[in-house]
Specification:
Length: 230
């Protein structure tokens, strides 16, 4: 059996197969709660914890799960990690827990998590599954943070508002007021603005990919045009 390429696993999770920008999975929480940077970061951390835990667990027991019942077993394992994450947030970040609300238990239905369990963790060892879960989680969290930052900036002219909900009272000083607004720009803070902001992020990724492909093509042409030395 060939050794997994950890570099490719990382690149897929962070960029080439990003669950939010490429696979377009988990869009319900992505668009619903990412109206501030901190909300996006909080949900991203919770999702990453579940992704890593479920990937490791599925990989560990994959040889003992009958194929006919693997999906229900995966869902039960994911649900147990979601419950643990929910209890931890309830205990240590209660205010953020209240803000995220129903979208924490809905992590169970996140297609990214069940998809990685089925497509990767059930077919690979523990270490590659850990790296896959971590990188997919970081990729998803990065999009959540960027989306939240963009919407928060456009909607209320701040960044890191509500940081104390995640990091404690001392973090209230982290709030940055970029410009003053008399009234919040509701379009950016409501779901329609989330679709618009996500579209901008996807467009930005596509532009970068095309430029990278163009550079790689030009480099290939220059290399092939060099005369061979006899």
């Amino acid at each position: 059996m060939s050794q997994p390429d950890y570099g490719d696993i990382s690149k897929n999770g962070l960029w080439h197969n990003n669950p939010a920008l490429v696979q377009l999975l988990g869009l319900c929480p992505l668009l619903a709660v990412s109206n501030t940077l901190i909300n996006g970061l909080g949900l991203g951390i919770a999702t990453t914890m579940v992704l890593v835990g479920s990937n490791i667990s599925v990989s560990f027991v994959r040889h003992w799960i009958p194929k006919e019942i693997r999906i229900p077993v995966f869902v039960m394992m994911i649900a147990s990690f979601v419950t643990n994450t929910q209890l931890l947030m309830n205990a240590f970040t209660y205010e953020l827990y209240l803000v995220l609300g129903i979208f924490i238990p809905l992590i169970v239905t996140n297609c990214t998590i069940i998809g990685r369990a089925e497509a990767f963790a059930s077919k690979n060892g523990i270490i590659p599954s850990f790296i896959d879960g971590l990188m997919q989680g970081i990729g998803f969290s990065t999009v959540l943070v960027l989306l939240g930052a963009l919407r928060e900036f456009m909607g209320q002219g701040t960044l890191f508002a509500g940081a104390d909900q995640l990091f404690g009272e001392w973090a209230s000083v982290l709030t940055i007021h970029l410009y003053q607004v008399d009234q919040s720009f509701l379009f950016a803070l409501l779901p329609p603005g989330a679709f618009f902001a996500l579209g901008l992020l996807i467009a930005g990724k596509n532009i970068i990919d095309k430029r990278l492909q163009s550079r790689a093509h030009q480099t290939t042409q220059v290399t092939s045009a060099k005369p061979e030395v006899s």
